[in-house]
Design goal:
The protein is α/β, with parallel strands linked by helices. The chain is about 50% helix and about 10% strand. The longest helix is centred in the N-terminal third of the chain and has 13 residues, at about 35-45.
Length: about 180
């Protein structure tokens, strides 16, 4: 059983997560995020903690950002786009129970204070930006680090704001190279 309450986008996501773990969930129902949903999330953060687990697409990332901005203290779970695909459909509902469990085991806290452990030079040096295959390398590294897939700017942001250490980064890169 997961202690925290998991915030997802819809009922199909609830069904997928319930196949993987016993957990209580709050559904956002999309972008709207009425004040009542935000209030439930605020209460959940104070009482039990919250894990935001939205789809790895534009809409999911926008919902994640809205919640994180309005309700500090949430933790974040990510899956890659590859793990969330079924045909043309992308979403948590398409992920296997094993993928969902793995993502929940690697939940990340978003730092309140901005850090600068990583710089654009780290991305360039490790072929995560500006070379053929950079996008795929970020995708794979994001899976290994549990920070999900995103563009280079957002990837750097997540490295600096989700508690990724230099050691974790180096170890993940070594795994990526194998």
């Amino acid at each position: 059983m997961i202690k925290e309450i998991i915030v997802v986008e819809g009922k199909d996501d609830v069904a997928a997560i319930k196949r993987a773990v016993d957990a209580e969930m709050i559904t956002t129902g999309g972008f709207a995020l009425p004040p009542s949903v935000i209030k439930r999330i605020e209460t959940a953060v104070q009482k039990r903690g919250v894990i935001i687990f939205t789809d790895p697409d534009f809409a999911g990332e926008k919902i994640r950002k809205i919640i994180a901005d309005k309700v500090p203290g949430c933790r974040h779970a990510f899956i890659s786009r590859d793990e969330a695909m079924k045909g043309d459909n992308i979403g948590i509902e398409n992920a296997s129970p094993e993928t969902i469990l793995k993502a929940l085991e690697r939940v990340r806290c978003q730092s309140v204070e901005k850090t600068q452990e990583f710089a654009q030079a780290d991305l360039i040096k490790n072929r995560l930006i500006g070379t053929e295959g950079s996008s795929e390398r970020r995708n794979l590294l994001g899976q290994l680090l549990g920070i999900g897939y995103c563009n280079a700017k957002q990837f750097l942001n997540r490295l600096n704001n989700y508690g990724v250490t230099r050691e974790e980064f180096t170890e993940a890169l070594e795994k990526l190279e194998k």
